[in-house]
Specification:
The complex is a heterodimer of chains A (189) and B (466). In chain A, helix 4 links the parallel strand 2 and strand 3. In chain A, strands 1-11-6-3-2 form a five-stranded parallel beta sheet. Chain A has a four-stranded mixed beta sheet with strand order 7-4-5-8. In chain A, strands 9-10 form a two-stranded antiparallel ribbon. Chain A has one domain: Rossmann fold, CATH 3.40.50. Chain A is built from six helices and eleven strands. Chain A is 25% helix and 22% strand. With 466 residues, chain B is of the alpha/beta class. Chain B has three domains: 247 residues, NagB/RpiA/CoA transferase-like (Rossmann fold), CATH 3.40.50.10420; 88 residues, Orthogonal Bundle (Fumarate Reductase Iron-sulfur Protein, Chain B, domain 2), CATH 1.10.1060; 64 residues, no CATH class. Chain B has 22 helices and ten strands. Chain B starts with a helix and ends in a 15-residue tail after the last helix. The chains are: A alpha/beta (189), B alpha/beta (466). At the A-B interface, helix 1, helix 4, helix 5, helix 6 and strand 8 of A face helix 2, helix 3, helix 4, strand 1 and helix 8 of B. The complex binds iron/sulfur cluster. The site of iron/sulfur cluster has 15 residues of chain B, from helix 14.
């Protein structure tokens, strides 16, 4: 019975825990919060950074980067497939390119915070073949400490995305494109 | 069968052993490069260690805080005292859905509980979706490493496996092509999965959410396509605050594979509209370990695998030689807590060189704990007779200067006179199986020292003031 186990675990944890020790405060270690560092790190882990002169350039840049993308999903322009929280799986599975807004970029590791509110559907950022994230370069912070400090909460679901899906499970050879998006382009403006 | 005997089997293939050793050392070197790039890395380790110590010192309270927050988020929380209960809860949830097809992302806890065979027995199709896990699932093997489950296999082995199960061309061993085949195969499984099971890297007491770190994105894909998400966590996965994640996400991937961070660091806090999320909180011996002051620090482990990659014994004996879900140095501490008799040889599978302790991102005193387990095992009479008697003998010998001197003389003579075949007979001298013995010196240091002319200026005795 689950509730009996609950009590047993809690009582055992209470009886066996050591004397209380303090919870440290985590300092802000500072660090370099530049687009250059972000770009260098993201490139080193398989992502690509492309500068936009302004959001107006989004369409033409995407056209150049993904000339073959047929099924696109995005709240940012007239995409070909409308996606919402109830879109059935077989429709999601056909998406070639999803273009979404990233909230915070982390220079030390190339990660971008992507909250559920920006995803259209929770599965979209991983089920799409290619993912492009639009990011305001002024939202780049130095470290994960600074990123978490800026998050009011992590909402219902959200994730840091750092590069394309990859694996090294076969003899430690790095292969880009495991299950999730095969490429990640960050469009900085 | 003890660790040494299983390791012997692994060592039969000398080339493969060397390759295994080098592959893991390559990962260790990547870890070093990633770590040196972070100036405050040592401070982060200290912070991580203190946060975990603190969490363990209030574990019962944080568990309740976490449960309340998760429930407020609309998440169902279950408690399992042991592996059997964990498995039963999950089967029950699956049956409530009327589901038969499960996708799983990597979770060492479900391995520890032997969930897969249990579900399969009950007619459920379970598909491990992490590529390494899927490979070993096809081969009906256990993972040999907690982060790199198929690290013991060569690409030709994977090629053979995929030829058999996925119909790839015979002899195909290109990692890119093999991964693509797995991608297509697993995509079909993701799309059809009804319930998704994931592990948990961190559980945040403050938010009631769980964090899952992967490179492949399989957890996100599985969980977000299925109607039900079941996340399984050991009670030690807790951390107090959201901001503590800043410390741990900076340490985990750098220590594990030398990456600055995993590709996906996903925060699951509330179920999507119309869907369900369940968290199963598991003890399975952990509260008992909490009650052992010498060993409780092992509960701080964040399962990065760095101690394995650096361990000279692990690298040359292979993960399967440990015969425990978590192999390597940390596994050798965790396993005797679960079954002291069965795993009594594991705390001896270490040179006590301390390399594991040096790399551990949460500063677990791994080699000290291994040394302590040896003493506990000795007191409990769990040391093999040969080891026990030879240690007693050595103890006597080293305690007496006269006996030590005599046996030294004898050994120097014997090494000179005895034939190689005898001094290297595996049954007498296991140490010399893969090594040459040193050339015996003509005299001992003591003999040499006594022969030195007394006029040689002696170094000044240092002055000690009390
Ligand atoms: S004991 Fe330390 S080094 Fe080993 S897996 Fe755990 S956290 Fe990593």
């Amino acid at each position: 019975m689950s509730s009996a186990s609950r009590n047993r675990i809690l009582l055992a944890a209470q009886a066996n825990k050591p004397a209380e020790t303090p919870l440290p405060t985590v300092p802000d270690f500072g660090g370099e919060a530049t687009a250059e560092r972000f770009t260098a790190v993201l490139s080193s882990i398989g992502g690509t950074v492309v500068w936009l002169d302004g959001l107006g350039q989004l369409g033409s840049t995407l056209q150049q980067l993904f000339p073959e993308a047929r099924n696109t999903a995005s709240p940012l322009f007239d995409a070909t497939v409308p996606i919402h929280a109830d879109t059935p799986t077989h429709v999601l599975a056909e998406i070639d390119l999803a273009v979404l807004t990233g909230e915070i970029g982390v220079a030390e590791n190339g990660a971008i915070w992507l909250p559920e509110a920006n995803m259209l559907h929770r599965a979209l950022p991983t089920i799409t073949q290619h993912l492009a994230l639009v990011l305001d370069h002024r939202r780049i912070v130095a470290t994960m400490h600074q990123a978490y400090a800026q998050l009011p909460s992590t909402g219902s679901y959200g994730k840091f995305v750092a590069g394309p899906s990859k694996t090294a499970d076969i003899e430690q050879s790095l292969v880009i494109g495991a299950h999730g998006a095969r490429s990640l382009v960050v469009l900085l403006y | 069968m003890n660790h040494a005997i299983r390791a012997d089997k692994f060592l039969l293939d000398a080339d493969r052993t060397t390759w295994h050793d080098e592959t893991l050392w390559f990962v260790r070197e990547k870890r070093d490069r990633a770590v040196y790039a972070v100036p405050e890395f040592q401070e982060l380790r200290e912070l991580a260690s203190q946060i975990k110590d603190h969490t363990l010192s209030r574990l019962d309270l944080y568990l309740q805080e976490f449960e309340a927050a998760a429930q407020a988020n609309g998440v169902h929380v279950h408690w399992a005292a042991d592996a059997a209960e964990h498995n039963a809860i999950i089967l029950d949830l699956i049956r409530q859905q009327g589901a038969t097809r499960i996708v799983k992302s990597k979770s060492m806890l479900t391995e520890e509980c032997h969930l897969n065979p249990y579900l399969i027995q009950h007619g459920i199709e379970v598909v491990d979706t992490d590529l390494g896990e899927r490979i070993i699932q096809f081969r009906e093997e256990a993972p040999s490493h907690i982060v790199l489950p198929a690290i013991h296999l060569k690409k030709e082995d994977v090629g053979d496996t995929f030829h058999l199960h996925l119909g790839t061309e015979k002899g195909e061993s290109d990692p890119q092509l093999l991964t693509e085949a797995a991608r297509q195969h697993l995509r079909a499984k993701f799309l059809a999965g009804q319930v998704a099971i994931s592990g948990v890297n961190f559980a945040v007491a403050e938010t009631g959410g769980v964090v899952v770190c992967t490179n492949e994105g399989n957890a996100d894909l599985g969980v977000n396509l299925a109607a039900v998400h079941i996340a399984c966590m050991g009670i030690e996965k807790l951390i107090p605050r959201l901001t503590d994640l800043g410390v741990f996400t900076r340490l985990l991937a750098r220590s594990a594979t030398g990456q600055p961070v995993t590709t996906y660091t996903s925060h699951f806090t509330k179920p999507a509209a119309g869907k369900e999320m369940h968290i199963v909180i598991v003890d399975n011996g952990r509260t008992q370990q909490l009650g052992r002051p010498d060993f409780r620090a092992s509960l701080k482990c964040i399962r990065c695998g760095a101690c394995m990659n650096t361990c000279p014994v692990y690298r040359r004996s292979g993960g399967h030689s440990y015969d425990f879900t978590v192999p390597g140095p940390i596994g050798a501490i965790l396993s005797p807590n679960i079954d002291m008799k069965k795993h009594r040889s594991l705390p001896f599978a270490s040179t006590l060189c301390g390399s594991c302790t040096d790399v551990c991102p949460v500063k677990i005193d791994i080699h000290t704990q291994l040394y302590k387990w040896r003493q506990v095992l000795g007191e409990a009479g769990e040391i093999p007779a040969s080891k026990k008697w030879s240690m007693k003998f050595m103890g006597r010998l080293l305690a007496s200067a006269r006996v030590y001197g005599l046996s030294g003389q004898f050994a120097r003579q014997a090494l000179r006179l005895l034939p190689h075949g005898l001094t290297h007979a595996a049954s007498f001298n296991a140490w010399a199986v893969a090594r040459e013995l040193p050339e015996p010196p003509k005299q001992s240091f003591r003999e040499w020292y006594q022969q030195q002319p007394k006029s040689v200026p002696q170094p000044q005795t240092p002055q000690v003031t009390v």
